[in-house]
């Protein structure tokens, strides 16, 4: 997911400090027996450590918000899409915590990502012929599969599980019992629909060769550190079923770089930095887009 890399804790803290401007720079943020820390102390320390990064990102966000509207409905849709990849709300919240994000901060990142995508894809012309040509050239990568799997550490266990499956054992029950993939085991090994190109090659190549309903032999993946047993549950590879995702992929292949987008917005924004420490921050030689896929 493309997003502005927000140093969110610092951004939000600076925003809250600005909101408390009536209290004055000498307002106390922390009191200790060894001495107090004022708002000015804290602000200046944040400026020294993350100041240019935070200020740059805040300005980028302002520029994108002015020109590219993203609705709450769109943010909710992307949020729910990500949430559904986790087996429980607890697991989802744990993942956010591991990335030092709150729910509101994650939603902010989603909004930034959607705004940036709109900016990158603005002005791209899409025709049915262009989409069909792109589909024909990239059919394998665009194919969508629906599968479930059981991941185990060693081949002996994999063969034992496969033997049980061939004897009629329930795939979901065995996944819950044996699988080491914590992201899918609670769901009986279900992975849902995914692009063929999004999985590690060993997995996707094996899944592509299966017929719907068929179970694979153990497939070793060095990246996952174990053996997969895969059952293919569905395949979508015709243009009519894939048209929406073909369009998304086509637009992504034609989009402008994030750097070009932000340089254009900066050029037209008449930015004047009042703080001398950062007065050259948005000059063409210093301004960079701190973004990532």
Write the layout of secondary structure elements.
Elements: E1 3-4, H1 8-19, E2 28-30, E3 37-38, H2 39-67, H3 72-83, H4 89-98, H5 103-121, H6 128-137, H7 139-142, E4 144-152, H8 155-166, H9 171-178, E5 190-195, H10 201-209, E6 219-221, E7 226-236, H11 239-254, H12 258-267, E8 291-292
Antiparallel strand pairs: 1-8, 2-3, 4-5, 4-7, 6-7
Helix pairs in contact: 1-2, 2-5, 3-5, 6-11
Can you describe this structure?
With 293 residues, this protein is an alpha+beta fold. It has two domains: 160 residues, no CATH class; 93 residues, Chitinase A, domain 3 (Roll), CATH 3.10.50.40. The chain contains twelve helices and eight strands. The protein has a four-stranded antiparallel sheet with strand order 5-4-7-6, with helices on both faces. A two-stranded antiparallel ribbon has the order 1-8. A hairpin with a 6-residue loop joins β2 and β3. α6 packs across α11. The longest helix is centred in the first third of the chain and has 29 residues. The N terminus is likely disordered.
């Amino acid at each position: 997911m493309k997003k502005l890399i927000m140093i969110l804790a610092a951004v939000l803290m600076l925003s809250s400090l600005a909101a408390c401007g009536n209290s004055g720079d000498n307002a106390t943020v922390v009191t200790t027996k060894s001495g107090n820390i004022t708002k000015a102390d804290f602000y200046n320390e944040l400026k020294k450590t993350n100041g240019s990064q935070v200020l740059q990102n805040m300005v980028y966000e302002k520029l994108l918000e002015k020109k590219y509207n993203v609705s709450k409905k769109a943010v909710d849709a992307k949020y729910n899409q990500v949430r559904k990849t986790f087996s429980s709300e607890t697991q989802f919240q744990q993942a956010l915590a591991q990335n030092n994000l709150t729910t509101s901060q994650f939603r902010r990142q989603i909004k930034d990502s959607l705004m940036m995508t709109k900016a990158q894809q603005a002005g791209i012309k899409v025709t049915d012929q262009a989409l069909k040509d792109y589909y024909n050239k990239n059919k394998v990568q665009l194919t969508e599969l629906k599968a479930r799997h059981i991941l185990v550490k060693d081949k002996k266990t994999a063969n034992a599980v496969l033997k049980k499956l061939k004897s009629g054992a329930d795939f979901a029950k065995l996944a819950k019992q044996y699988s080491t993939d914590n992201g899918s085991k609670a769901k009986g090994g279900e992975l849902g629909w995914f692009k063929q190109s999004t999985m590690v090659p060993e997995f996707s190549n094996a899944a592509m060769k299966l017929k719907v309903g068929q179970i694979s032999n153990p497939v070793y993946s060095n990246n996952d550190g174990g053996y997969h047993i895969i059952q293919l549950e569905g395949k979508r590879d015709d243009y009519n079923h894939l048209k929406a995702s073909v369009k998304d992929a086509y637009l992504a292949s034609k989009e402008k770089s994030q750097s070009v987008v932000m340089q254009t917005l900066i050029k037209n924004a008449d930015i004047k930095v009042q703080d001398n420490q950062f007065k050259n921050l948005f000059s063409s030689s210093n301004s960079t887009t701190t973004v990532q896929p």
